[in-house]
C-alpha cells in the first residue's frame, strides 16, 4: 500500500515541468492558434525526446513500458503548462490502440491523431499530423482530412475526417484506448485546474481594493478553498483509475468538475482582466471548457458509472 | 504507486471481518443518547475490548494490539461495512486519548486509558461556551489556583458537550490566568462529571434525544493530578485534539463508503418512478465522492507512514467528508420518496446526525479559512475590526 507517486515518477513530472517552463508554451499556443505550428512542434519533439509519446508502449516494442500512472503524471504537466498538439490522441489513444509499425512511429514521436465518433467526432490538429486515423466499423482506418472547425480553445484545431479504407490499420482494444485517452484528458484537466488556482492565488494576494488585498476577504478565500478541496479529491480518483481501482469515468467526471470550478472561480476572482483574450488566464479557461466534453461528456461518463454500480460490480 | 494490501494486512482484515460477522448485533442498538442505549453501547464496547478490537492502534498494555495506520483504516472499513454500532466512547478514544499519550503523565495514562478502552469510563468533550464557539480562545470559564488543596477551582459554563448527558468524565479548557494573552493562560482539565459543583443539563438535539448537554461549574475542585499538560499550556495541547477531530481519526473512509454502498443498494431495489433519472445521477455522484474520500485517505496514510503530518490538510478533509455525508443521506431520503419523512429510520437518523457534521469540530467556514490561509497562503483577515 503506497498511494503516492514514486520518487522516479515525481522526478519525471519535475523534469517535464522544467522543460516546458523553459519553452514559452504560451507563446507556442498563441502561434498555434494563429496557424503557425513551428514553436509547438519544436516543443512536441522535446517532449518526444523525454519519451512522453512512448510511455504506455511496452518495452519490447521499443516503448518506455510505463503504465497509466506514468501517463497521468505526464498529462497533468501538459495540462498545467498548456501544451499544444494531439497529445491525448497520440500518447494515450493511438499508443494503446495501434500495433506494429504504426505504433512504432507513434512511439518514436510522430504526430498522429484520431477521431473516435460519435464521442470524438473530429480529429484534433489533423493538418499537422503525419498519421490521421478514424475508428470505423470497429477498426482504425487511415483517414482523409476535411474541413477545419475552430474550438472555443483556439489551440484545438478540429478537422472532419473520413475513412479511406476500413480496417486499414490493425488495432488491439478500442475500449482500453478510449479509457486511456479519457484518463489522460482527466489528468490534463487536473493540471489545468491546478495552474488556474496557482495563478488566481497569486493574483488575489497582490490585487488591492478598499485598502487591502482582495485575498484577505472571506468571500474570495472560501471560493478558492473550495477549488483546493475539489482538486485534492479529484486527484486520487485520477490515479486510482490509473491503477484500475475505480472506473476511468469516475475520474473524468471529477476532474471536469474540479477544473470547471477552478476556471469559474479563477475568472471571478480576477475580475474583468480575466475576461480578456490578452491575459493568459483565458487560454486555460477555454482549454478547460473544451476538454470538459472531449473524450466523453460528463453525462455519458455518469451513465457509464451508473451502469457499473447498477450491476453491483463495485 | 499501488493499493495492494500485504499478506499480514489481509490476514488482519479477515480476522476482523470474521469477528464482526459473528458478533455485530443483528438488530440496531437503541440510540446511545438514551439511558438504555448508552448502557447497550457500553456493553458493546466491552465486547470489542475483550476481542482487542476497541482500540486496535493502541499499545498492548493499554488494551490495543499495536495495529499500523493501514490496519487501522482496514479495521474501520470492516467495522462500518459490517454495520456495527456507533462508538459511544469515540470522544475519549479518538479525541482525548492521543493527547493523553502525548502529554499525559505515566500515572494518567495508567489511570485513564485502560478504562477508556473497555468503555467502562465514557468521556465527554467540553470545549464550547455560550460566548465561545468558533472563537474558542475567547472562552471565559475560569480555573483559580488552590495551593492549600493542591489543585484548581473551576467556575463557569460549557455547552454542546457531546455525550455529557450519560458520560462519566469530561475534558476541556479553562482560563487559569486572566492576565495572559488569550491563547495563553488556558489550562487543560480532566474532571468527573459527578464531581461536587458540576450540574449537567441535557439538551435535546434535532432528533429529540439528549446527544449533548450544558455543564455548569460552581467551585469545582480539580486536583493537580487531573491537569493534562502544563498549566497555561492548554491551547497548544488542545489544538492537537482539534487536529485529530477534523482529520483522519474520527472520519475513516469506511463510514462513507459503507453509506454509499447502502445508498446504491437502496436505489437498486427502489421501484422506478418519477424523477428516477435525477436521483440515479446523484447516487452516482455520491458513490464517486465516497471513492474519492477512500483513495484520498490512502494518500494521507502513505504520507503519514512516510513521516509527514496532516497539517492543515485536515481542514480539506473535514469540509469534504461533512458535505459528502449530508449529500449521501439527502439522496437516500429522496430515493425513499414519501416514506422518507418517517421518524426513527436508519436513514433519517443518519441524516439528522450528518447535519451536525458541517458545524462540529470547527465549522466549515473556519475550515475554509484555514485552507485559504495555511494551504493557499492568503493573507489573514484583520480580526475584531473596530466598532
Explain what this protein looks like in three dimensions:
The complex is a heterodimer of chains A (314) and B (387). By secondary structure, chain A is an alpha+beta fold. Chain A is built from 11 helices and 7 strands. Chain A has a 5-stranded mixed beta sheet with strand order 1-3-4-5-2, covered by helices on one side. The two termini of chain A are 20 Å apart. With 387 residues, chain B is α+β, with helices and mostly antiparallel strands. Chain B has 11 helices and 8 strands. The interface between A and B is large, with 48 and 48 residues.
Keywords:
heterodimer, A: 314 residues, five-stranded mixed β-sheet, two-stranded antiparallel sheet, 11 helices, B: 387 residues, alpha+beta, four-stranded mixed β-sheet, four-stranded antiparallel β-sheet
Largest sheet properties of chain B: 4 strands, mixed
- How many distinct helices of chain B? 11
List the strand order in the largest sheet of chain A: 1-3-4-5-2
**What proportion of the residues of chain A form beta strands (DSSP E)?**
5-15%
Q: Would you count the extended β strands of chain A for me? A: 7
